[in-house]
Amino acid sequence: METKTLNGELFANMVGGGAARLNSNRVTVNELNVFPIPDGDTGDNMFMTIDSGFSAVAGEADEALGQTAERISKGMLLGARGNSGVILSRIFAGIAQGLKGIDGADVRTFAQAMEKGVAESYSAVQTPVEGTILTVYSDAVRVANSRIEDDTDFETYFENFLAELRASLDRTPELLDVLREAGVVDSGGAGFVYIAEGMQDALRGARFAQGGAAPEKAAKVDVSTLTEDSAFDFGYCTEFLLRLRTEKVGEVSAFNEKPLFDWLESNGESVVAFRDGSIIKVHIHSMTPELILAHCHEYGEFLTLKIENMMLQHNESTVRNNYSKPKKPRKKFGIVAVAAGEGIRETFLNLGADAVVDGGQSMNPSAESFLEAFSEVNADSILVYPNNSNIILTAKQAASLFGGAEVRVIPSRSIGECYAALSLLDISSGDIDEIERSSIEIMGSVVTGTVSKACRNTERDGVCVREGDYIGFSGGTIYSDAPTAFEAAEGLISALSADDYGILMIVCGKDADTAEATALRDALQKAHPMTEAILLDGGQPIYDYIFILE
Questions:
Q1: 309-347, pLDDT tens digit by residue?
Q2: Is residue 156 part of a domain?
Q3: Residue 514, domain extent
């Protein structure tokens, strides 16, 4: 089969193939983790990102190529998670820019669009690092584009593209010491190889219907949360895509969506609504979803529809975080923080956060999750604390998409930095620039350390790590390895010079033993008498203990 022209239907199928192939291999990508603890999530993040793009097509694969690419791009921008997911979304955003207004593309036109994907993805990262997905993708585009001849078809182009993707991926350890030391290739680059393989599957004739990529396993719903006599306080989370219909609204291009959006705002909470051509995307919380649907049905037909009883959410903290609060009165400054663990979430709320987005390592929130939080906060200016280096890009992407406030992403990389910043936050100046500078300065005075179980043998930072042991680390440096979390914590706190700080907060994870945690606090207090040791039940996953020194 020789494909000389790419149309919207085929491109959508190729993206579906990429999502399906990555879904089958995302655990493999997750395991390409440079740090020896079970917190790899690159495969999950990239899959959820590209699957959001595939879902945005919603069965409209016969559209012109430019329209299809744009809708896929917007879906990925909203669904982007983690650094690799954001970069992936920007690659497809660049491709969509290159295909704008085109019904179908030949190989040379598509190759130029792929080059725009290179430029767009590099521009999304403040300091691009070679040896990552950026390098792997750009190398492959450069080589494949250089081999185009007058008779080159898309099958040949992707053969060349994939060959260089794999070769460039194999070279990533030569460019990044951290990959070479860990004995792995770049996980983001590996994820993109699987995506390209799936796109090639589609070129070879495989079909990927809407929803062809396996969905996330549904979480078990606790129906006991709502009994016959329960107070019904939370309502329903309703999400849908609505296709505007000419027979209902007249000329679609002339349709003014503002009255509809105003109506939604006055009849629900946490509204996120926007228009993409003839499609209206809506997220709304309401006690009466049937009224919302009946009203919107007057304008068109539903392409997708989901209604969830928010009292039955599998994660109770998610319910309270995202859905239990009505939209607040407009305020000058608002604060959004990210946290995993009920105790940490409550601590941030008590320190003044207006909304806490559920997330952390291994469970990075999407850009759309941030957009919902921004809408809920309802402020002129919003400060965002991502609290993880792998979430900062997503928060920035959401900030660039949100038009309802000035959003400043404070580059916090740990909950310790956020805790310190919120504890000393002073907004009395009313100057967002000064508040941002002050937060960054405060974060520089705190040290965060972590203890977690090692998932493989390795040697790093002069420490011999054994699988099954516990390691103590801060930032990207490992300071201790021991058979127990208790011993690893003692070694870590000693290495971090706890005596130089006034407070040591011990944040216990969901798997930490209560008796051990109390004994650990007492031991650390005795070893460092001038530093006050405080115990907090954080409830976070993965990390048995998080230590905040300030």
A1: 876 643 433 333 333 344 568 899 999 999 999 999 999
A2: yes
A3: 447-549
Note whether 32 and 120 are same-domain residues: yes
pTM of this structure: 0.77
Residue 226 lies in a domain: no
Contacts of 79 (CB under 8 A, 6+ apart): 48, 49, 51, 52, 53, 55, 85, 89, 366, 367, 368
State yes or no: pLDDT of 60 exceeds 80. Answer: no
Dihedral (CA of 409, 410, 416, 420) sign: negative
pLDDT at 218: 41
HEC states along 133-176?
Answer: HHHHHHHHHHHHHHCCCCCCCHHHHHHHHHHHHHHHHHHHHHHC
Same domain, 122 and 171: yes
Q: How many domains does the chain have?
A: 4
**DSSP code per residue over 448-511:** EEEEEE--S-EEETTEEE-TTSEEEEETTEEEEEESSHHHHHHHHHHHTTGGG-SEEEEEE-TT
Q: Give pLDDT, residue 145.
A: 97
DSSP output for 16-83: HHHHHHHHHHHHHHHT--SSSSS---HHHHHHHHHHHHHHHHTT-TTS-HHHHHHHHHHHHHHH-BHH
d(CA 428, CA 39): 39
Tell me how far apart the alpha carbons of residues 312 and 236 are, in angstroms, rounded to a whole number. 10
Under 8 Å between Cβ of 235 and 193: no
Answer with the residue of higher pLDDT: 239 or 6: 6
Number of H helices, E strands in the chain: 20, 18
